[in-house]
Write a structure and sequence with these properties.
Layout: H1 3-24, E1 71-76, H2 83-96, E2 101-106, H3 111-140, H4 148-155, H5 157-176, E3 181-185, E4 188-192, H6 193-196, H7 202-212
Parallel strand pairs: 1-2
Antiparallel strand pairs: 1-3, 3-4
Length: 228
Amino acid sequence: MDRVQLLLVGLPLFLFCSDLINLFTSPPPPPPKPSHHHHPRHQPQLQPVPQPLEFPTQKAHGIGGIGVGSTININFCASCSYRGTAVTMKNMLEASYPGINVILANYPPALPKRLLSKVVPIVQFGIIGIVVAGEQIFPRLGFIVPPPWYYTLRANRFGTISTTWLLGNVLQSFLQSSGAFEVYCNGELVFSKLKEHRFPGELELKDLVGRVLPNSKNRDVVGGGSPW
């Protein structure tokens, strides 16, 4: 008898014997019934939440509200890359004098420089146009033969165009720049870079503006000092 036959005969005999054993054995005792006594439930203990202490707010007697109703005008040279300095001064004044109105604007150069700056692009494009298409332009202007300087410019066409464009941009930037950084408080000049030939320091400008503000006359502190 091989293993498969032994397995087929032994498995039913094993199941039959297990049924007989379960039949003659006593059933297990029933599980104990739960008592009806109510036990107090342990509720989780609530941890006290710390509350922030509230202190009475102290009103600032020095700077708070001193800038209400006042206007600061910072006129700077936009083509001179002074915008970063102007924004820094604006943020400083707004933080030092809450309620103050700070306006940034470009300080234009003098009228002759502005007019010349408009002429520079025309000259640039004129030279570039002559270098590129001078042989068609000069006959229309009444010149049978182009002048000698035209052939000199045309001999180095790329260098002439690049030099004209570069020098023209430098000249135009110079004519459009004023070099100004003027600070006005309620229409009164507080600081002038054109006169001082330098930029103001943050503390210096803060003190100068604090002296001019109308509300600062009745205060003990000017320019951010402690009132205590």
